[in-house]
Amino acid sequence: MGNPFQDQLLKAGLVNKKQVNKAKHEQRVSKKQHKNNKPPAETSQVKQELAAQKKRAQELNRQHAEEKRQQERLAQVKQLIEQNRLDKDDRGEAYNFVDGTRIKRIYISAEIADQLSRGQAAIVRFGNSYEVVPAKVAHQIASRDKEALVAFHQGS
Questions:
Q1: 96 neighbors 104 (Cβ within 8 angstroms)
Q2: How confident is residue 134, by pLDDT bands cut at 50, 70 and 90?
């Protein structure tokens, strides 16, 4: 069970049980003191590593929160477009607009084309297609995602 050397001394009668227990106790105390007395360089290094880990964790949490906010904004934009889009008319007139460096075309009624030219409506990107929304909704979309807004003729 214990130290074989101590057991031999105890059997030989050179030490008594009390002395063996005292030696074991002193060994435990010295181990605890040695464990608690780490060199200061190690503890400062450990503290620096912990601080660096904490900083990395905070940065990751901030990035995850930002990604989540961005996803929420995109979901809001999608919902605004779906709920407020104006009807397109495949037999209506062609309305040409610029998206980046390309000229695109959608077919809409004459009334909606007039609203677009007066700034009462706007064209927004919705997935791989384009939708027409009222100006009020276009302002809300622009506040959340400026890149979704393609063509909006605002009065000066």
A1: yes
A2: very high
Beta bridge partners of 130: 125
By the 10 Å C-beta count (0-12 exposed, 13-18 middle, 19+ buried), 139 is classed as middle
Q: Say how many domains are in the chain.
A: 2
User: Tokens standing for 151?
Assistant: 């063509």
- For the entire predicted model, the pTM comes to 0.60
pLDDT tens profile 9-18: 778 877 888 8
**Dihedral over Cα of 111, 114, 118, 121: its sign:** positive
Q: Which residues have CB under 8 Å from 142's CB, separation 6+?
A: 148, 149, 152
Dihedral of alpha carbons 9, 13, 15, 16, sign: positive
Domain limits for position 87: 81-151
Please report whether residue 62 resides in a domain.
no
Q: How far is CA 84 from CA 71, 81, 116, 120, 156, in A?
A: 20, 5, 15, 13, 25
* pLDDT tens, position by position, 17-58: 888 888 888 888 888 887 776 666 677 888 899 999 999 999
Q: Are residues 85 and 30 in the same domain?
A: no
Is beta strand 149-151 parallel, antiparallel or unpaired with respect to 121-126? antiparallel
Residue-wise pLDDT tens digits, 87-100: 888 788 888 999 88
